[in-house]
Design a protein that fits this description.
Strand order of the largest sheet: 6-5-4-3-7
Helix content: 40-55%
Number of strands: 10
Number of helices: 8
CATH architecture of the largest domain: Orthogonal Bundle
Structural class: alpha+beta
Radius of gyration: 34 Å
Distance between the termini: 133 Å
Number of domains: 3
Shape: elongated
Largest sheet: 5 strands, antiparallel
CATH topology of the largest domain: Helix Hairpins
Amino acid sequence: MGIFDSLSSIKLGDVSISSILSALIVYIICYIAIKILCRAFEKILDSSRHIDASLKSFFRSAIKAVLWTIAVIIIAGTLGIPVTSLVAVLSVAGVALSLALQGLLSNLFSGITLLTTHPFKVGDYVEIGGQSGTVKSIGLFYTGLATADNHMIYAPNGSITSGQIINYSAENTRRVIICVTASYDSATEDVRAACLDAISMIDKAFSEPPPFVAISSYGSSSIEYTVRVWCRTEDYWDVYFALNENLRTCFDKHNVEMCYDHLNVHLINDK
């Protein structure tokens, strides 16, 4: 007790040696406690298979930052530093930092939302903000899309969560829809037979649900028909392009004229 009193009388500036030793002991205790808590939290994260690796890394860093912030406040109190003033300074600094990094924080929390709600996953074909592509990466700040011509698009997560997301890979099947035009002189039965013949040539097209062919509109010089057929999601583009090519062939086979916009002009001779 006498030694402690002696150390209390020795000061480095405004802080006594005993306060420094107490702060050192508190630091060691906090260090050990943080290690134990981080290991326990690590086990919880490792046991969860539904949390993305990027999100796990973020949680690890966030927990460490929170625990060490608490430790600094405790150590500061041990050294005699007014804790209330320190908390106030940290609060003001936090507000200023959040305002300066508002856009970045928006992307961060949006990234956490994407990684926890899973509206899409890596490998899915999606449409985001008018851009379509295959998801290559989902990060905390940006999501990477590879377009059909292999261009990489990195979209801020904030813009993704605030807009519409269309996930074409969410279901196992997808419907192919193509509109074609035929002459008014071609019978509807002939056009329908040509379209169904074109579909039957595609092995990847489903027969159930049955393909659909019907008149969808009447134009000034042609009739528009809508052709619908189901397929597996991964076969969509193969079926789409094959159907486009087969329709041309089958229209010729069934003597159906595939029309384009044109204007018929009739000259009248008054003589």
